[in-house]
Design a protein that fits this description.
It is a single chain. This protein is an alpha+beta fold. The protein has one domain (about 5-30, about 45-170): Glutaredoxin. Helix content is about 25%, strand content about 30%. The strands form three sheets. A five-stranded mixed sheet has the order 7-6-5-10-11. A four-stranded antiparallel sheet has the order 1-2-8-9. A two-stranded antiparallel sheet has the order 3-4. Helix 1 (about 60-80) links the parallel strand 5 (about 50-55) and strand 6. It starts with a strand and ends with a helix. The relative contact order is 0.24.
Length: about 170
């Protein structure tokens, strides 16, 4: 599997991403992750809809908490026809607990903990930590990546405005 260094860091310490380097215009790879009730969910389940993928290392950290709360608020405005999926390596039980405590009802949390199929397919799996890099992707109805930001410093928030602007341009 491909390894890429120098893309992300944690507090200035470089980390290694495992998997391909996806680009805007690429078809988003399918993946399967677990929802809060341990049911498998695949990207193909959302075929024909624009999708936001909000990728976080762990919901139990301050920046991931902020990012997920922000996208939860945006998802309410976007409505049910534009799913916002928050993906992390957190166990489904931890995700469910976080959603309950945060009152997050508009984003759907998915756990990649079992086999890292999402992280490996999207080149966002951090080898040293077995966590996902912070990223935001916007996919169009055909499953093509229309926006992709891998946040260089894991402790920094993504550019929400850029992701939402890319989404607003889609039919």
């Amino acid at each position: 599997m491909t390894e890429r260094k120098g893309i992300v860091s944690l507090h200035g310490n470089p980390l290694t991403l495992v998997g391909p380097s996806l680009q805007v215009g690429d078809r988003a790879p399918d993946f399967t992750a677990l929802d809060n009730d341990l049911h498998p969910v695949s990207l193909s389940d959302f075929r024909g809809r624009n999708v936001v993928l909000s990728v976080v290392p762990s919901l139990d950290t301050p920046t991931c908490d902020l990012q997920t709360r922000r996208f939860n608020a945006e998802a309410e405005r976007l409505g049910p026809d534009t799913p916002v999926l928050t993906i992390s390596m957190d166990l489904p039980f931890a995700q469910k607990r976080w959603c309950g405590a945060a009152g997050a009802r508009n984003v759907r949390t998915l756990s990649d903990h079992r086999d890292a199929s999402f992280g490996s397919a999207y080149g966002l799996l951090i080898r040293e930590l077995r966590l996902l890099a912070r990223a935001v992707l916007v996919l169009d109805r055909e499953g093509v990546i229309r926006h992709l930001q891998i946040v260089p410093e894991l402790s920094a928030e993504p550019d929400y405005a850029a992701a939402l602007a890319a989404l607003a341009k889609l039919p």
